User: What shape does this take?
Amino acid sequence: MTNLHKPKSISTGKRLLVIGGTSDIGRAVADAYAAKGWGVALAARDVERARRNADDIQTRHGTDHVSVHPIDILDTASFDAFIDSLGALPDSIVCVVGMLGDQPRAQGDPDHATAIIRTNFEGPALLLEALAGRLAARGDGLIVGVSSVAGDRGRASNYVYGASKAGFSAYLSGLRNRLSQTDVRVVTVKPGFVRTSMTEGMDLPGALTAAPEAVAQRILGLQTGNANVVYVLSAWRLIMGIIRALPEPIFKRLKL
Amino acid sequence: MKDLSGWGRYPRQIGAQTTAATPDEAATETTGSAGLIARGLGRSYGDAAIGRETTLSMTGLNRMQSFNPETGLLATEAGVSLDDIIACFLPRGYFPVVVPGTRFVTVGGMIASDIHGKNQHNDGTFGHHVAWLKLALPDGQVVCCAPHENAALFQATIGGMGLTGTILAAGFRLRPVSSGWIRQTTHAAKNLSEAIALLRQTEKATYTVAWIDVLARGASLGRSLILAGEHATEDDLPGGYKQFPPARTGRLGVPVELPGWVLNTASVSAFNALYYRRGAKRSGQTTLVPWDSYFFPLDSISNWNRIYGPRGFVQHQCVIPNEDAEQVMSTILDLLSSRGEGSFLAVLKCLGPGAGLMSFPRDGLTLALDLPVSEKGLGLLAEIDVLVAQAGGRIYLAKDACQSRATFSAGYPNIAAFRQVRQDIGVAGHMASKLSERLAL
Ligand SMILES: Cc1cc2nc3c(=O)[nH]c(=O)nc-3n(C[C@H](O)[C@H](O)[C@H](O)COP(=O)(O)OP(=O)(O)OC[C@H]3O[C@@H](n4cnc5c(N)ncnc54)[C@H](O)[C@@H]3O)c2cc1C
Ligand SMILES: NC(=O)c1ccc[n+]([C@@H]2O[C@H](COP(=O)([O-])OP(=O)(O)OC[C@H]3O[C@@H](n4cnc5c(N)ncnc54)[C@H](OP(=O)(O)O)[C@@H]3O)[C@@H](O)[C@H]2O)c1
Assistant: This one.
């Protein structure tokens, strides 16, 4: 055959692990990397839905290098076996697992609150900890944790989610600090509002809302440079800066 | 509840809408439904994609499934858009065998309307290139249909306007192309007979279509520009041409509804005359045109459907069997130009048979035009419909908002067979649109 039937991109030989391969942001991230010739491993608890995304990426980019791996982020005991099942250690890791939950329900239902806290904080933190150890042993790699602006200050409307994201952000910060003398980079991404199934039906302000593809391009861009904490839309850095600066006696009376 | 309409923004209906994010969800929505119809990108003009009770939005089914570079067979979910397909596969050297005049349509919509393109005379309809499809039925089953598997249902679903069930996914062929450019040759035709003769002469070309000035009168009645096209090879491209240019994203747009009077007979007629004169100067010449402006000229103006003002417009496409084509076409053009009912350059084309039981294409000559909604315009279309029916022709359901039941049943000889298939699989009453209600399908 002629050069007609070439795949769209030339393989880089590199591999990305997306933890949360069924999420809209995770899908967009995987797609953006595959478009640049990366192999992609999608980890998800619902393997069938992750397979649907894997087939899509494989078809769009004419690559065979897309795999699917089962993970339940609440099953912390399984993490070492999960990492072993990946085969070669990935070059970059993006964790998008999260759970918004229902704040009023979480106030009266400790099980629900626990699920939110464990899904946003405990699970991702411990899994990235285990992965970071292996990357450090190898000597290089990129870890991206998708946290949230909701973690910048606890608010009445979503503090169970916010507190768990705050914990996750702090964990990433510590990990970054610990690994700063190595070639393993740790980046915290705070997307602001994103149009995904998590926010479906919500009335989001257009100027402060990003498309999953925009978040993905931002994360892809982290492969180079030395960013530490990224707000996808810079307006959010400003907004959260103001919110963080408000004195508590004033802040506690606000309806946010 | 949602304000629903087709691309013509007429008619408008308030109705319930549900959304499916996955094929499983679409199948669940279809199960036990009453008065449901699937909707893709809503580019059909009239009431085909509005459910009698509920409209099921399919654009969440936007995953591709597999591609075989040897055969060009692409499998996708039904909500994948043509825009997406071209963006992924043109850079790899493939293009869908048949495309309509806009790339903002879904795979499901293209199958359900059995769409035709500028190569219909050579390559048939989209349905001719469908290898299989997966259909969800109201009884909860999901069946695979192909030319040799559930063949009757396959045939009824192609061109079946969503009335046999919800298409979840399909496999269809792309053709290899060696560039994203078309070698376009323009021929000017001074009147209708010249236009028809030129359309026939250029049938050897992969693509051929005529832009017709429906407001020209007298000796110029039916004056047209015939645009024949071939996929350019890499060698045809001068240096500096990108082999696979990406789509130009619409910089132009119509941000608000224009008042209805902006498009009046004088302005449209002047525009058409200018367009014709500019094209006639290039008669006989061949130029290289990028794929998007050749196939999808209107897509560069987003929301162009707003230029017709708040009442919307109706698009009308008929096909007249070859025997009387020229004479009936000229009567129709006479009616349009003498009433001064202006349509921007309309489209004239030779058609051949479609792939499905209810497909619009058949041997003959087709004319597509649009008119702003008005008493006068609708009255004129009713007159045209009578001529079409008398000549044994038919009206395209994807562009229809107002044909009568009589015109419809005169034009589609397979209605009884189609109803029978609907009975046999138990979808009658479950799958129903405003269109199927209006036409008692
Ligand atoms: C500018 C323009 C140019 C056009 N040019 C052409 C042309 O050259 N040739 C041509 O043939 N057509 C043409 N069309 C018409 C268009 O191609 C068809 O109406 C097509 O069906 C639109 O696809 P859609 O995804 O928007 O479907 P919709 O308009 O949403 O639906 C159209 C029909 O398909 C059914 N349908 C949609 N999805 C599914 C599904 N998943 N399962 C079952 N049924 C489904 C709907 O029920 C409805 O009956 C043109 C339209 C425009 C706006
Ligand atoms: N959307 C926004 O506006 C927004 C804003 C700021 C931050 N974020 C963050 O961005 C990330 C992605 O969110 P999204 O908007 O794409 O929403 P999403 O689609 O709901 O993504 C959440 C992901 O987490 C996975 N998950 C939940 N519990 C899990 C478990 N126990 N084990 C394994 N995976 C589990 C989900 O898997 P299932 O598909 O199986 O449920 C899903 O893939 C989240 O961390 C979210 O907090 C989103």
Residues A 20, 22-26, 44-46, 71-74, 96-99, 119, 146, 148, 191, 193-194, 196-199 surround NAP (ligand 2) (CB under 6 Å). Confidence is low (pLDDT under 50) at residues 1-6 of chain A. The first strand of chain A starts at residue 15 and ends at 19.
